[in-house]
Amino acid sequence: MKLTDKLSFDHEDRRELYEYVESHGTVKRKEVEQALKMDPRAVRHHVAILKRDGYLTDEGGVLKVAFEDEAAAEEHVSDEVEFVIRQAHQSDLSGLIGAIRHVADEGTYIEAEEVADILDHEEVLLRHNEIESRMFFVATVDEDVVGWVHIRVPELSKLHHTAELTVGVLGEYRDHDIGSHLLERGVNWAKRNGYEKLYNSVPATNEGAIQFLEKHGWETEAVREDHYKMDGDYVDEVMMAVRL
Fold first, then answer.
1. How many beta carbons lie within 10 A of that of residue 45, not counting itself?
2. Which helix (H) or strand (E) segment is 240 a member of?
3. Per-residue model confidence as pLDDT tens digits over 174-216
4. Most CB atoms closer than 10 Å: which of 116, 194, 202, 206?
């Protein structure tokens, strides 16, 4: 299932089952039976249909949303640093939150702070529901998450041609083109899925991020004066975008 696929259910129990799994990330079938008070035979029947329709996977009684892994993992080597760019999985959650918080602690990426807070609160990585959807790709070194690109898609029809993108890399792994490869993966995903525009907002003090995005064809669309208050000082917000 793609994040651009419209959700459609012909049975209310199947909708309820999908929504429970989607909001929890990974759950055991028995947990669904207990939480939704459904007969085990009915759960097996509904899961079979949701699997057939591409909504869920069932591996040994463990249910997950069947997000389509559109492209294979990409292996790269830069200045003797070997890293992999791939779609994120629920098992990456704690490492991803740690990486985002580490970058956010630098104090110049407010959007990253918000992403980390949401992940911490929901404890679910990939989402696809009737309000919003989100996709993550990660960069890993020896299986450790060292960077990410995040695409958030609002389900409001008037905004569905746009998506919000955040990207970041741990300080010690910068200058190895990891950020460029992550950004490319996120932009290519957006293009393949029919989005027309990506946007990102950063404080004006984050000159490195602004220069990085400009280098990759992003432009400043607007500046909101004194939008942030950081360490007692007012800081402008630079709103950047790229058309695909």
1. 15
2. strand 233-243
3. 989 999 999 999 999 999 888 999 999 999 999 999 999 999 9
4. 202
Angle between helix axes 40-52 and 12-24 (nearest 10 degrees) is 80
Task: Give the residue carrying structure tokens 């003090």.
Answer: 205
Reading the block at residue 37, the tokens are 């008070």
Q: What is the pTM of this model?
A: 0.89
State the Cα–Cα distance between residues 68 and 185, nearest whole angstrom: 15
- Helix, strand and coil content of the chain, in percent to the nearest 5, comes to 40, 35, 30
Cβ(32)–Cβ(39) below 8 Å = no
> Is the pLDDT reported for residue 9 higher than 70?
yes
Could you report the per-residue pLDDT of 102-133, keeping only the tens digit for each?
998 887 788 888 899 999 999 999 999 888 88
CA distances from 86 to 89, 103, 144, 148, 241 (A): 9, 20, 12, 10, 24
